[in-house]
Design brief:
By secondary structure, the protein is mostly helical. The chain contains six helices and four strands, in the order H-H-E-H-E-H-H-E-E-H. 50% of the residues lie in helices and 6% in strands. It has a two-stranded antiparallel ribbon with strand order 1-2. The relative contact order is 0.06.
Length: 180
């Protein structure tokens, strides 16, 4: 019983239902593309190429002569159906083209989160800070736009490494206070 309950929970989840609807719509789309290629695209191409019917283009490997692919199939002849293969390649091209543009439109419709437009990530402590900040509120590091001025993370937190950008010489000031 636990198996059936878990299966029911899995089957009614949003992603599974969405996927099932996608498969159904995809199947219908394949039929539309098949009709589009076979009935609309291929006849004009065949007419331009000299009244060629791509569905009847084949190579007969059994040696007999047949008027069409249907006759060859009925006779049990072994054929290489390159015309049907060309139609299948055109089907694939149309489906790939339509899928590409569908994905472009879906990505365009996705909303950018408002928080990503108003904040950025500190490269040093990885906390979210306002986008216009020039100093991190959490780690107090300067956030320079010029990458050459920024100190790499390794040089910042490893005390044994000497930072060549900073002077290592110490200056001492001697103050003489004399009482008069």
């Amino acid at each position: 019983m636990q198996f059936l309950r878990r299966f029911k929970e899995f089957a009614v989840r949003g992603t599974v239902v969405d996927m099932a609807i996608g498969v159904i719509v995809g199947t219908a789309f394949v039929k539309i593309v098949d009709s589009f290629v076979t009935d609309i695209i291929m006849p004009p191409i065949g007419l331009v190429l000299g009244k060629v019917d791509f569905s009847n283009l084949y190579i007969n490997l059994s040696g007999g002569r047949f008027q069409s692919l249907t006759e060859a199939k009925e006779a049990g002849a072994v054929t290489v159906n390159y015309g049907l293969f060309l139609e299948t390649i055109i089907h694939f091209g149309i489906v790939a083209f339509a899928t590409y543009f569908t994905i472009l439109q879906v990505n365009r419709m996705k909303k950018v989160p408002i928080e990503s437009m108003s904040s950025k990530e500190c490269p040093y402590c990885l906390s979210n800070i306002p986008i216009r900040a020039i100093k991190c509120l959490n780690c107090t590091m300067d956030l320079h736009e010029d990458k050459e001025e920024q100190v790499p993370l390794e040089e910042m937190f490893i005390p044994t490494k000497i930072n060549p950008r900073k002077s290592t010489t110490r200056r001492t000031i001697q103050i003489n206070i004399s009482a008069k």
